[in-house]
Amino acid sequence: MMCRLLLTAMLMTAFVAAFAETGLQRAKVESIQKHPQGRIAYWEGRTPVFDGNPVYDITLQWNDKKYVVRYESLTGYYPKAWNIGHEIRVKHERGQFILYRGDEAVPAREISSHDCVQAYSPEGPASVTPQVPCE
After folding, report:
1. Max Cα distance, the chain (Å)
2. Do the Cβ atoms of 26 and 85 come closer than 8 Å?
3. Nearest-10 Cα torsion for 68, 71, 72, 75
4. Distance from CA of residue 5 to its chain's centroid?
5. Which residues have a Cβ under 8 Å from the Cβ of 57 and sit 6 or more positions away?
6. DSSP state of 51
7. Cα-flanking dihedrals φ and ψ of residue 121, to 5°?
8. CA pair distance 67, 89, nearest whole angstrom
9. Structural domain boundaries of the chain?
10. In this predicted structure, what is the pLDDT of residue 61?
């Protein structure tokens, strides 16, 4: 009986240590907003010119809080495993989440309302990253 208890404790400790070492947790995909035209590369007067690289704004529910992250895709590919309602493995780092698709780690930057431009107007708060039109 004592051996079984000791073995169980050792296995639980190994499991917790392995989980803590990777830092991976699960987040639920709440919504997805596709920007098929990509981000605004520059302006010609009041007309935006897009870079043509699709981006996806993904709302994640993680640790009882919602985060919006931007996944960039040069081809437009979006993993089915990240569809709305699915739980995905993530790792939260400073200013970004690492989203996992199998063993592949994909960075996705946290975004805010300053990452979009209202009403096709180049005026607005300055952003250090290319923006998309607000929906």
Report:
1. 79
2. no
3. -130
4. 41
5. 32, 33, 35, 68, 69, 70, 111, 132
6. -
7. -125, 130
8. 14
9. 24-133
10. 97
How far is 123 from 8, CA to CA, in rounded Å?
Answer: 62
The answer to whether residues 53 and 38 touch, using CB atoms and an 8 Å cutoff, is yes
Task: For residue range 69-104, list pLDDT tens digits in order.
Answer: 999 988 889 999 999 999 999 999 988 999 999 899
What the block records as the tokens of 40 is 């605004």
Question: Could you tell me the two tokens for 72?
Answer: 């960039």
> CA-CA distance, 68 to 111, in Å (whole number)?
6
Angstrom distances, CA of residue 67 to CA of 21, 59, 110: 23, 6, 7
Q: Average pLDDT, whole number, for the chain?
A: 81
- 54 phi, psi to nearest 5 deg: -55, 140
